[in-house]
């Protein structure tokens, strides 16, 4: 569980979430702001923890180049583990998500030709008044909308986008 509570490891998981086989060099290309040494170190931790697996090895100029694949079902915090997380672990998780998003957004803005308006960049916050049934219904609708596109694979004309819903009560609910 704690493997995913780190911004660079979280970015690695997001960078390879398409489940394609990748090399460390390809991963470094996807994370240009992260040093090679950090990518190697964090990738090794993800492999040790079972979140990525070695998909193959190839000898290139006397060195062995490994290719990896995300073990998709392992790159989530199971609900039962999330239910046992402490307040500090939840803080660390949100901090990792926010740090990861800031880093990815900075890489995007640093690209030549980045145009947030033309690219449909959005960062909005909404305040919604919901009872338990409405909250559960909204959660299911959002999950269904994301799931309908989550299986999309890379192809010509598609650009990888990040969507990071963060959902929590802004104030305590009424007493039971």
Please bin the fraction of helical residues.
40-55%
Relevant CATH superfamily of the domain at 2-116: Winged helix-like DNA-binding domain superfamily/Winged helix DNA-binding domain
Derived structural class: mainly alpha
Count of alpha and pi helical runs: 6
Specify the oligomeric state. single chain
Describe this structure in words.
- It is built from six helices and three strands.
- With 176 residues, it is mainly alpha-helical.
- The chain has a domain of 115 residues: Arc Repressor Mutant, subunit A (Orthogonal Bundle).
- The protein has a three-stranded antiparallel beta sheet with strand order 1-3-2.
- Helix 1 crosses helix 5 and helix 2 packs across helix 3.
- The radius of gyration is 19 Å and the shape is globular.
- The model has no long low-confidence stretch (mean pLDDT 89).
């Amino acid at each position: 569980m704690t493997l995913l509570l780190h911004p660079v490891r979280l970015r690695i998981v997001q960078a390879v979430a398409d489940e394609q086989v990748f090399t460390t060099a390809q991963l470094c290309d996807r994370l240009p702001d992260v040093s090679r040494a950090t990518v190697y170190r964090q990738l090794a931790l993800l492999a040790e923890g079972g979140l990525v697996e070695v998909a193959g090895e190839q000898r290139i100029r006397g060195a062995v180049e490994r290719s990896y694949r995300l073990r998709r079902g392992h790159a989530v915090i199971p609900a039962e583990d999330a239910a046992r997380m402490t307040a500090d672990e939840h803080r660390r998780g949100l901090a990792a998500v926010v740090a990861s998003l800031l880093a990815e957004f900075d890489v995007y803005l640093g690209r030549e030709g980045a145009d947030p308006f033309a690219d449909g960049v959005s960062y909005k916050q909404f305040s919604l008044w919901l009872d338990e049934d409405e909250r559960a219904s909204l959660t299911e609708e959002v999950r269904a909308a994301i799931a309908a596109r989550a299986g999309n694979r890379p192809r010509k004309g598609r650009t990888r986008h990040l969507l990071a819903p963060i959902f929590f009560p802004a104030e305590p609910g009424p007493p039971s």
